[in-house]
């Protein structure tokens, strides 16, 4: 088994447990080597900037699962017809997380959504969390993460929010650029208008995708 360096015993055990769960989920789709490569590379991406080491194996497992699901779609293992939308901003801490929250809340199982950042931050913007909580949507358990090639390739629609030239461009993808104020450093009162504009755009997007809004 591939091992990431400088891990505590608890972290090694947690990663091994995560690898077991991922192997069970993707049994018959991906082999052990691919699963462990994605898990450990995901761990390494968070390890360099995480302030909460104990949560690293959990974050790595969640991100590896998302990446493996994306790769499965790219390779044709998943053909459920559900549209996949990717929300990208700079830090993946505010706008793209609010968009992801609204999309998942309104679309339910009717579509798939992911988010990422060109320069992922360390935590979700507290004002964004509070503003979304006012609408009954909890994004506090989300985490800033990078975009990866397989995730972009798996998306049907890529929505960018302020990442400019840093956002990935792949031929044949549908791109939408949403000009939205960056909520970084702002209080809840100033974030609410951004939140409400994101909701409006998400509802319009779902209508375009022929995905009924649940709320």
TrEMBL record:
<feature type="domain" description="Phosphotyrosine protein phosphatase I">
    <location>
        <begin position="83"/>
        <end position="208"/>
    </location>
</feature>
<protein>
    <submittedName>
        <fullName>Protein-tyrosine-phosphatase</fullName>
    </submittedName>
</protein>
<dbReference type="InterPro" id="IPR036196">
    <property type="entry name" value="Ptyr_pPase_sf"/>
</dbReference>
<dbReference type="InterPro" id="IPR023485">
    <property type="entry name" value="Ptyr_pPase"/>
</dbReference>
<dbReference type="Pfam" id="PF01451">
    <property type="entry name" value="LMWPc"/>
</dbReference>
<keyword id="KW-0059">Arsenical resistance</keyword>
<dbReference type="InterPro" id="IPR048716">
    <property type="entry name" value="Phosphatase-like_N"/>
</dbReference>
<dbReference type="GO" id="GO:0046685">
    <property type="term" value="P:response to arsenic-containing substance"/>
</dbReference>
<dbReference type="Pfam" id="PF21234">
    <property type="entry name" value="Phosphatase-like_N"/>
</dbReference>
């Amino acid at each position: 088994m591939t091992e990431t360096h400088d891990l505590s015993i608890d972290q090694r055990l947690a990663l091994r447990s995560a690898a077991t769960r991922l192997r069970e989920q993707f049994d018959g789709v991906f082999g052990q080597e691919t699963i462990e490569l994605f898990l450990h590379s995901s761990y390494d991406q968070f390890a360099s900037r995480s302030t909460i080491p104990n949560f690293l194996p959990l974050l790595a497992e969640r991100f590896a699962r998302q990446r493996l699901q994306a790769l499965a779609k790219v390779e044709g293992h998943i053909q459920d017809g559900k549209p996949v939308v990717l929300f990208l901003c700079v830090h993946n801490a505010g706008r793209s997380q609010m968009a992801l929250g609204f999309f998942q809340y309104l679309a339910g199982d009717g579509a798939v959504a992911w988010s990422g950042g060109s320069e992922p931050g360390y935590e979700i913007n507290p004002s964004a969390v509070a503003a979304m909580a006012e609408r009954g949507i909890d994004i506090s358990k989300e985490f800033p993460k990078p975009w990866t090639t397989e995730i972009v390739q798996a998306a049907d629609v890529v929505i960018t929010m302020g990442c400019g030239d840093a956002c990935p461009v792949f031929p044949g993808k549908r791109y939408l650029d949403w000009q939205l104020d960056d909520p970084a450093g702002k209080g809840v009162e100033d974030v609410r208008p951004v939140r409400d504009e994101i909701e409006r755009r998400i509802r319009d997007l779902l209508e375009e995708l022929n995905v009924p809004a649940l709320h």
